[in-house]
Amino acid sequence: MDENCIFCKIVAGKLPSAKAYEDDKVLVFMNLQQKNPGHTLVIPKVHYPNIYEIPDDYVSYVAQVGARVARALKRQFEPLGVNLLQNNEPAAMQSVFHYHVHVIPRYKDDDLLAIWKASASSPDVLNANAEKLKAGL
Ligand code: DGP
Questions:
Q1: Total number of domains in the chain
Q2: Residue identifier of the C-alpha nearest atom 1 of ligand 1
Q3: Lower Cβ count inside 10 Å, N or C end of the chain?
Q4: In which domain, by residue range, is 77 found?
């Protein structure tokens, strides 16, 4: 637990949250700003700041619960789509530095997450970037 972390305080019950699920490893609760109705956060109960620090098996478990949440949101809220979004560092829109996955119901023209407007890159660029990544895996 990080005593300055807002999500650790939610896990500890020191701050209120609208919980939908919890077990010994994760907590699922409503995001404060409901970008669309049902906008949910899945967090590990242990404090890890971001994807760089959380262990692989914990990432897997949070992802499994995220998948369950996505299917349940689809059934219960009947959105046209669902995004799972995980931000790391301020440049990537992270504002709370406790690992979390957003699960966001989506609707046509809801104007959220208007990203990936870039045009297609050349095969040379794609191959060079794949090689650069490969060297680090
Ligand atoms: P991110 O940008 O990925 O770090 O998103 C963090 C989200 O956390 C942000 O959309 C709002 C949400 N949030 C911040 N403080 C609280 C809180 O006290 N309660 C709840 N439920 N959500 C919070």
A1: 1
A2: 94
A3: C
A4: 6-136
Active site residues: 100
Q: What is the reported pTM?
A: 0.91
Distance (Å, whole) CA 17 – CA 45: 14
Tens digits of per-residue pLDDT, 56-104? 999 999 999 999 999 999 999 999 999 999 999 999 999 999 999 999 9
pLDDT at 116: 62
Please say if the pLDDT value at position 19 is more than 70.
Answer: yes
- Count of H helices and E strands in the chain? 3, 5
Write the CATH number for 49: 3.30.428.10
Tell me if 29 CB under 6 Å of ligand 1. yes
- Indicate if ligand 1 lies below 6 Å from the C-beta of 86: no
**CB of 6 closer than 6 angstroms to any ligand 1 atom:** yes
Cα(100) to centroid(ligand 1), Å? 9
What's the CA gap between 12 and 38, in Å, rounded?
23
Tokens standing for residue 23: 């077990």
Q: Do the domain assignments include residue 55?
A: yes
Calculate how far, in angstroms, residue 78's C-alpha sits from the geometric centre of ligand 1.
23
